[in-house]
Amino acid sequence: MTLDFQLLARDGSARYGRLATPHGEIETPVFMPVGSLGAVKGVPAPALREAGAAIMLSNLYHLSLRPGIEVIEKLGGIHAFTGWSGPILTDSGGFQVFSLARLRRIDEDGVTFQNHVDGGEMRLTPESVVEAQRRLGVDIAMVLDECPPWPVSRADAEASLDRTQAWARRSRKAWSGAPAGLFGIVQGSVFPQLRRRAIEELAALDFPGYAIGGVSVGEPAEDRHQVVEWSAPELPEDKPRYLMGVGTPWDIAHAVAQGVDMFDCVIPSRNARHGQLFTRQGVLRIKNARFKDDPAPLDEGCECACCATSSRAFLHHLFRCREVTGPVLATAHNIRFYLDFVRDLREAIPSGSMAEKLRSVQSVYASSRAVEPSS
Amino acid sequence: MTLDFQLLARDGSARYGRLATPHGEIETPVFMPVGSLGAVKGVPAPALREAGAAIMLSNLYHLSLRPGIEVIEKLGGIHAFTGWSGPILTDSGGFQVFSLARLRRIDEDGVTFQNHVDGGEMRLTPESVVEAQRRLGVDIAMVLDECPPWPVSRADAEASLDRTQAWARRSRKAWSGAPAGLFGIVQGSVFPQLRRRAIEELAALDFPGYAIGGVSVGEPAEDRHQVVEWSAPELPEDKPRYLMGVGTPWDIAHAVAQGVDMFDCVIPSRNARHGQLFTRQGVLRIKNARFKDDPAPLDEGCECACCATSSRAFLHHLFRCREVTGPVLATAHNIRFYLDFVRDLREAIPSGSMAEKLRSVQSVYASSRAVEPSS
Question: Which of A159, A351, A367, B167 has a Cα-to-Cα distance from A316 of 20 to 30 A?
Fold first, then answer.
C-alpha cells in the first residue's frame, strides 16, 4: 500500500483528516516529535507513546552516519531498531547537509560533503536517499532537496530550485512501487513565483504528500507566515501537507488555519533542556528565581507525569542543581504540551471553533518574545 | 508513631520483615534508590514507583545546600517537594562532609566546613542535623556521625568513634518524641572491638533502627564483608539493620545472608550513566563494539520499559552518540534490576532457598572484576 489520506472536516481553510500508513493511522493536524537519532532526547519510546504521540520523526542523515543504514536494516528496520512501533517519517537529510555538514560540493547529480561527526566524506543523491529510506522501512520518506540559507538572492534561489526540482523528478521515479509514501518538498525561499512554480511541478509528479521546506532557517516569523499563506492553498487538496521544522505554538496555529496538516519541531525538546517550559498561560523560564518556592504545578491544565508530581519549585531546584531529572521531566512535559496543543487545534476544526482558538493562541503566544530560540 | 518492625521469617541469619513508616510499609530486605537532591538521576518519581521502589533515599547535606531546609519546609516537607509520596530516609550528611566538603574543622560540638558547591561555610551539630530532618518530615532520619577514611589507624579510629558515640547520645535525646524513626550508625572502621563497643553503646540507647556505616570508603570487598559479619549478628534482633552505601549484587546478597535488612547504593544509577548494565547473566558494558548489531534485549528476564522496547544494539547506538536517552533508559533498567534482585533475595527467605540463591549470585557477581567502580 501507499498512504491513504481522507479529509473528514473543514473549518475555513483548516482541515481535519486521517492518514493511514503501514504502521497505523494518524489524525491530522498532527505534531511529530523529533528523534533524529531514533529517540526523542530524554523521552524513550514508551513514554512518547504515553504522552500521546502518534508518529515519530527521525533523520536519514543522522542515522546514516550512526549506526549506519546497514546495521538498522540487519536489525529488522527502523521500527525494530528504535522500539517505536507506530508510524515513522524520516527527513532526507537535505536540511542537515546544508546546516551541519562542511565543505559541500553540489553537482547536478547530488551533494558531497564532510559529515559533522568525524569529518568523513559522504555523498547523497536523490536515488541513494530514496533507497536508504526504503531500506530503513519508514512509513513516510522525504525527497532530497537543497535548502538555501536565508537571506538568499532570487537568482541563487532559482538556481537552487532548478536542482531541487530535477532531484524531485528523479526521486519520484526511484520511489515508484515502494510500500510507503514519499513526500515532495516545496522550496523557493521567500519568492512567491518560485514557490508557485515548485508546487505546480511537484503536483504534476503526483506525490503521496507535500512538504513546505526552506523555512525555520533564520527568517522572521512574518516571512515564514507569508510562505505558508502563499503555499498551503496551492497544494493539492487531497494530499497531506507538512510544514517542516515549524515552530512556535503561534506558528503552528497559524499554519493549521492555512490548511497545513503535519508539523515537526525541536523547540519543545530543545527549549526544555534550557528550562523554557510551555504552559497554557505562556512560557515559563523555570530557572528564574521567582519559582524558587512556587508550589504550583508547571501547568494546571496538564495531565503529564511531571505536572502530576512536580511543583515549579522542585523543577527550579533540579535545573539549578543541573540534575538530569530536570530536563527529563521538562522535555516530557513540553512534548506533551505540543501534542495536547495540536490535538486541541485538531478538535477545533470539526467543532467549527478554529477562529476562536486561533485568537486565544495569538493572545498568549504571538509576541515575538514569547518563545525565545534556545541553542 | 515511631517505626514498627516485624520479623516474619528467617532462613539462617537472613531475615524477612515488614517495616511500617508514617508514609507506608516496606518489606525487607529492601533496596533504597538514591535521590540525593530529591530525585534519582534520570528517573522521576512516577517511573521510580513503577520500577517497584518502596522507599527513596535522599540526603540532608545536599538538600540543606540546595534548595535549603526552609524552602522545603515551606513547601510542605520533603514528600510534597519531591513528589515521592512513599517513605523517605535521609542520610545525615556525615558521609558527604567527610567525602565532599573541604577544610573541615571537627570539635566536640560538631563539624564546620566549606561546602562543595560555592565554598560557603556550613556547620552541622548532632542537634542541628536531627532538627533539620524533623523539619523535612522524613520517615527515617540518620544521626550525625564521623566517617573515617580507609585505611585509618586504630588510635584515630577510636578517637573518631568516641566523638561519634557522644554525638549519637545527643542525637537520641534531641530526637525524642519525633513522629518518625532515627537510626544510630555503627562506626569503628575495620576494628572488631571498636565495632562491638559501638554496637553495645548504641543498643543501650534503644534506637528504632541501626546502620552499619564507615564502609564503601575504598576498602577491599573482603574487609567490607568482615565488618558485616562482625556487626550484623550483634545488632538488636528486633530492629531493622541498614548497611550504608553498599554495594554490588554480591555485597548485598552476602549482607542479606548475614541478617542485614536495608541497602542504598549509587552503583546502579552511576554505573548506568557510564554504560555498565546489570543483567541476570552478569554486567554488560554496552559501549563495547560487540553490541553494535546485537538484537537481543539487555536482559531477557527483565520486564522494564527499556528491555521491552530497546535492543542492545539500540542502547549501544544511543551511548555511542551520547544521546541522553541512553543513560535515561540504562538508569531505569539498572534501578529495576537492583529492585528485582533484592525482591528475589527477600522471597528466598520464607521459601528457605537463601543458600541456593547466594551460590547463584556468587557465581555471577562475586568476581572482583564483575562490577567495576565508575566515577
Answer: A367
